[in-house]
Amino acid sequence: MLKVVKTAQTKENNTITLYETTNENFDKTILLVGVFHGEEPQGNYLINEYIKTDLSKIKNKLVIIPCLNPDGMAKNQRQNSNGIDLNRSFPTKNWRTTTRKEYFGGNEPASEIETKFMIEVLENYKFDAILSIHAPFEIVNYDGPAKELAEKISEITGYPTQGDIGYPTPGSFGNYAGVERQIPTITLELPENISNEELWLVNKPVFEYLAEQF
Fold first, then answer.
1. Per residue in 26-64, pLDDT tens?
2. What is the pTM of this model?
3. Which CATH architecture has domain 2-212?
4. Where are the alpha helices (DSSP H) in 7-91?
5. Where do the domains of the chain lie?
């Protein structure tokens, strides 16, 4: 079973919802997050498919945000409604302001409702692992002490592991949670041009592993 434990209203009055499972006895606490980037809605679909399944016997507590950026998803754009890339807006040691382009992280870190929401979530829980769902690189990217978990998810999906995404990511959630807070953080980059139904078949076992075996 799931319960709603936190919500926030975005600039466009869409709702960000945080759920958690209601199991009282659990081993670990896992965060699942979809849609940092609005043009990557696959995470919302996969997470919502997963929470329709039977969660009564899982061993870990799941903390779940199906869609962090509902404004961006509604507009099919990477950024939120303020034109901010949420995955560049965290108050990391390497945060910096840039010109207002695709990866613009704002005029100051943690300026956005969505970013503040995520920061509060990390302050309120002690996570053993985080799964953030993106697209389209078809890799299992990881930050912090997550190499072993990344290799397991790679084994499940067939997507290769990659510790470095290949370009600078100042202010990213991976830096904030994985590198600086040492929470094992997986950025699951899904392939593009594959139906949501096919993605679900491949990635359902990832959710099951995190909930039942990790």
1. 999 999 999 999 999 999 999 999 999 999 889 999 999
2. 0.96
3. 3-Layer(aba) Sandwich (3.40)
4. 42-50, 70-75
5. 2-212
SS3 (DSSP) at 4: strand
Q: Which residue has the tokens 């990866």?
A: 103
- Please list the residues that pair with 188 across neighbouring strands: 133, 140
How does the average pLDDT of the chain come out, rounded? Answer: 95
The rounded distance, in Å, linking the Cα atoms of 127 and 177 is: 10
Place of tokens 């397991």: 152
Is residue 22 a contact partner of residue 2, using CB atoms and an 8 Å limit? Answer: yes
pLDDT tens figures, 127-148: 999 999 999 999 999 999 999 9
Cis preceding-peptide flag for 160 (omega within 30 of 0)? no
Report whether the peptide linkage leading into residue 170 is cis, meaning its omega lies within 30 degrees of zero: no
User: What distance in Å separates the CA atoms of residue 51 and residue 201, rounded to the nearest whole number?
Assistant: 15
